[in-house]
Amino acid sequence: MGLPAFLAAILALALALALAVPLPLVAATTERVVVDPQSGLAIGGYDPVAYFTDGAARLGKPQFEQRAAGVIWRFQNRGNFAAFAEYPDIYMPRFGGYDPVAVARGVSVPGHPSFWMIVSERLYLFYDAKARAAFAADPGRIIAAANRKWPDVRRSLAP
């Protein structure tokens, strides 16, 4: 095998391995709503209404999808689909699903759908349990700081 064929084989193997290894749930930090880069779904395909109705993070189903805020959202059932269609601003996570603790520091860090909290009838997603605990200790202060910083953080994200 010549050098060009050997390099092509190595490149093919590296590409195959890269595609076979699942990536952790992260967002492209160029989005104004946290989007899973592999699926293209808002908040990793989790149903934002289920946090309110079930008190739990639940994956949505492909048959219940709709587009809002430039991204695709999934829902568990027709009722959640309809509720979101009527009131998307109520059910979308605050700060586009970015961690409010990070937003309060002026940075965009994607929240994870498994770390969440509802405060004043709004959904917040957090990077991890530590960020959620920091938020829970003083949500009013962090929300106020995040509200002040969000316009600048949002401008740093792509339209």
Can you describe this structure in just a few lines?
This protein is α+β, with helices and mostly antiparallel strands. Helix content is about 40%, strand content about 15%. It has one domain.
In terms of topology, how is this protein built?
Layout: H1 3-20, H2 50-53, E1 61-68, E2 71-75, H3 78-86, H4 88-91, H5 100-104, E3 112-119, E4 122-126, H6 129-137, H7 139-156
Antiparallel strand pairs: 1-2, 3-4
Descriptive report:
The protein has 159 residues and is an alpha+beta fold. It has one domain (43-156). It is built from seven helices and four strands. The protein has helices spanning 3-20, 50-53, 78-86, 88-91, 100-104, 129-137, 139-156, and strands at 61-68, 71-75, 112-119, 122-126. The strands form two sheets. The chain has a two-stranded antiparallel sheet with strand order 1-2. The chain has a two-stranded antiparallel sheet with strand order 3-4. Strand 1 and strand 2 (71-75) form a beta hairpin. The longest helix has 18 residues, at 3-20. Residues 6-30 have low confidence and may be disordered.
Helix content: 40-55%
Gyration radius, in Å: 18 Å
Please outline the major beta sheet: 2 strands, antiparallel
Question: How many domain units?
Answer: 1
C-alpha end-to-end distance:
49 Å
- Across the major sheet, the strand order is 1-2
Proportion in β-strands: 15-25%
**Shape verdict:** globular
Class inferred from helices and paired strands = alpha+beta
The average pLDDT is 85
Oligomer designation: single chain
**Uncertain parts:** 6-30
Helix and strand run: HHEEHHHEEHH
